[in-house]
From TrEMBL:
Annotated Pfam families: DSPc
CDD domains listed in its UniProt record: DSP (cd14498)
Protein name per UniProt: Tyrosine specific protein phosphatases domain-containing protein
GO biological process, one term: negative regulation of MAPK cascade
């Protein structure tokens, strides 16, 4: 399995090994990193760094943290993307936390519904959401928020 997979052009979903691989970061011109952990270090070469402080321990508190962070996460990833930067979104394994953040970002970028986007992510990175989406409640919350509140106002 690769340490990172390009989910859409310029946006990668990966694990801690991709995040710590200076040669990989340079080769893929990564300009922003979203670190979905409370404790993993950032590589020194990355200037635009964001931490999404969530543990993947299935505790209600951590699911709630992801839910509360989701609008801000979506905005910050979208801002980096619109600035033209290549982005790595990662957690320890590139399976759960970072896949949830990728889904939240893609909802905002594309306007698609979460199940469609989660399937797309799984096609590009087969270990994403295995065996199930640990942060499904957070993803569903943001999907509903975006389609019922954010998106309708964005068009007016």
């Amino acid at each position: 399995m690769q340490n990172a997979n390009e989910i859409i052009p310029r946006v990668w979903l990966g694990n801690r090994f991709a995040a710590w691989d200076g040669d990989w970061l340079k080769a893929n011109n990564i300009g922003a990193v979203f670190n979905c952990s409370k404790d993993l270090e950032f590589h020194s070469s990355v200037k635009n760094r964001y931490r999404v402080p969530v543990h993947d321990n299935l505790q209600a508190e951590e699911i709630n943290n992801m839910t509360q962070w989701s609008p801000e996460i979506a905005y910050k990833v979208l801002r980096e993307y619109k600035a033209g930067r290549n982005i790595l979104i990662h957690c320890a394994a590139g399976m759960q936390r970072s896949a949830a953040v990728m889904t939240i970002f893609l909802i905002t970028l594309t306007g698609e519904r979460a199940p469609v986007l989660m399937s797309h992510i799984r096609r590009k990175r087969p270990i994403a959401f295995v065996p199930q989406a640990n942060f499904r409640k957070s993803i569903e919350y943001y999907d509903a928020l975006y389609h019922n509140s954010i998106h309708p106002h964005r068009l007016s």
